[in-house]
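Crash report, auto-generated. Payload:
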Amino acid sequence: MNAPGRAWVYGNDINTDLLAPAAYLKGSMEEAASHCLEDLDANFAASVHEGDIFVAGENLGIGSSREQAPQALQLLGIRAVLAKSFGRIFYRNALNLGMPTLVCPHADRIRSGDRLRVDAAAGVVHNVSTGEDLTCESLPDHLLEMVGDGGLIPHLKKKLSASKPR
Amino acid sequence: MSMTLAEKILARAAGRECVRPGDIVTCQVDLAMMHDSSGPRRLAPKLEELGVDVWDPGKAVVITDHFVGESDAQSVQIQALTRDWAAQRRLRGYHEAQGICHVVLPERGHLRPGMFVVGGDSHSTTGGAFGCFMTGLGATDMAGVLATGSAWMRVPETLRVRVDGILGEGVAAKDVILFLCHEIGINGAGYMAAEYTGSGVTAMAMDERMVLANMAVELGAKCGIVAPDDTTCDWLAGVGVDVNDAHDWQSDGDAAIAREITIDATGLTPQVAAPHSPENSAPVDTHTGTAIDQAYIGACTGAKLDDLRMVARIVDGRRVADGVRFFVAPASVRIADQAEREGTLESLRASGATILHSACGACIGLGPARLGAGEVGISSSSRNFQGRMGDPSSQTYLSSPYTVAASALAGCIADPRAYL
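Recovered output after restart:
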């Protein structure tokens, strides 16, 4: 199992415009990511580390279909996303990018800086800092498999090559 | 088995007799719509990686609207890439700079009741006004659709929104949906199908039904849908789409639904959503007198022909208040042409309005109607998240076109009923 990741905890209604401001969508993904959440927390983009975990309350990712919202988090190093509830397109987008994305009804028990281990297959978040295990809604099998393959494109690649006649 | 309209469409697209909420089904896609932001520029590399191309170009449409009217090098490059990608494939449709995708799609005859349609934009729910199951997807999802011709869907529960009675003078579908955003909250219909019914919906023209379907996504819904009736069929006949199966695309009377909400249209007053969420809506009285720097009529939500006519009813023969910028971006070129022919645009110009490109514009923080630091705007668009329409310190109020127009005249948020 991976080393525990550091939690970044935010509140309700974190929308796609906050995660990926429209003004930077024309440019590179790196540029968009560098402005991720800047209107809410100017330090976030510069301070996130590889392996960190993004935690939010209700309605994470409401708004636009822009995939740059979860992609910015991923590019900055976020390796799993937990929230009490999601905007549905963000949820699909994050999973399609291969990020474990879990509905975690008790996400409010996590504090910023807590060290978390996310077991997507079991649907459990282990909070190493508090010793607590938080049960999440389990992902349907087809999504677990897709995330396990690294996202929709690697998943389709595998399926397409398996179906090609030899 | 009894089914709702959304379930019937998903069952048909999944090749099943029957589906139930919670089922996860693979649906064959009848039509895939893309635009210039999430479309070819982000999809093409993914398709290349997969080594496949569009499964059926006859079922794919590209409409440019996001970076239209922008002259910076990046926008020009994105337009060129999109144009070339579309030209290399014999797509069902490529509509460049003809207006906002959600309005251009039905206008060019691409939608009919019963279709399962995906669009690379959250406001794709708009297509549900025509009795389609239409939902928004991100770029990787769309690449998967283009590669396989299918998409997985969790069959949504249905929220029935019954609008009873006829809206009063100066009150519009936008007021209904803002009221609903407040009633159930910004994700109150999360993952659900929102079906709009009742005498108030039956009485609405297509432009108004499109507002309800469009902002279903503001409720978190997977789709917003209105069952087809004579109004739908007449409108579609006008764009060359003959419908003879409208009776197949109706919810069964005894179909199970998750929740029903009834809205009294007769008693509804104009609504205004305060910054920074559509759910912050309240009767216009709550905000009357709040000074504004700008009034904006635009976006897929609030700049269709009927919206422009609402504005004309308010501003005709009057002048916009000194110091207020009044911008109007008709939702499509066809709408702008018609509004020009009938004198509506002239009436708007005479009041002091500046007519902008038919593009997404200020709704996504682009173009000349972008709000500056600390500025206050009122807009007929759908979303007023912090920073969306300009500087992070700007404030956007949402309302119907009537209320935007009245506020432009008053220089502050105003009740449009005083101007009728």
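Post-recovery validation: The mean pLDDT of chain B is 98.
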